[in-house]
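Title: Prediction job returns without error message
Component: structure pipeline
Severity: low
Priority: P3
Assignee: unassigned

Description:
Job completed but the reporter wants confirmation the result is attached to the right record. Sequence as submitted:
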Amino acid sequence: MKIAIVILNWNGKQLLEKFLPSMVKYSNFHNAEIYVADNASTDGSVAFVKQTFPKIKIIQNNINGGFAKGYNDALKNVDADIYALVNSDIEVTDGWLNPVISVFEKEPNTAIIQPKILDYKNKSKFEYAGAAGGFIDKFGYPYCRGRIFAEVETDTQQYNDETEIFWASGACFFIRSSVFHELNGFDEDYFAHQEEIDLCWRAKNTNKTIKYVGTSTVYHVGGATLKEANPKKTFLNFRNSLFSLTKNLPVNRLIPVIFTRLILDGFAGLKFLIELKPMHVVAILKAHFSFYNHFSKMLKKRNKFTKKADYYMAKSIVWQYFILGKKKYEDLLK
């Protein structure tokens, strides 16, 4: 198998300086090639990579089209069987590629894989963006093994397994190139955040398997592009989640689920208001208006893929977490 590790960069010179050395050191496997796909940076990132890591291939995108367009444009120029899409704030470890590629080789129907993602700042903890593999609840709210809302678990090797999941984190996202192009890549209307959930859902709708491989470990800084407290992140997460529901829900559940979700988002806005975070309330309102403006466009995208009914595990993660007090993934299984 030919492996391409593609790191999307936008004005991330400091991150490249910090994390490219581990990538170069631990990626000498199956002749894996490393690419930096640059989203029109202005901080000298490209010059730094050319000078310091001359063997790394550089793809220069004309504009900063965000995560989705950035990768879509870059991957048109990458010839490989497996794409490893890796954030610029990821530290990889010795042997991180081996177990992932082994699963791809053994399982032809496995299309997407995520490794274990731990917190670079506290390496005993799982990292918010992906942890040990993702799921969504009935209303489209994402959660992970190892992370539910803001509750992050300590890594005690409880997720050193290999199991099927619903979505893999875009922070470190392995996908067969054939599947990526068959599904037309990421939806560029998302710009950033949750486009990987949509892509995984579309893969599921075509009966592909998505897996978590806990014997591969990486460390993620998280929030390097948009901090958790940034209202723009709130806007993108709320809006894009509604996009995914509209595109991928089974037709008989489309209207009731979205209607309920809009109400739940209202409660989230009330929570932000109580917490004296008015800009996040505004972000949710903007997310809803943007969703309304894009609703017909998202509906038109539904016809490209077959829908499946079994898309969630938890009926309502909001109810489980905030009302029943279930803070860990294992609690949801009881």
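Comment from assignee: result matches the submitted record. The domain at 3-220 is CATH 3.90.550.10 (Spore Coat Polysaccharide Biosynthesis Protein SpsA; Chain A).
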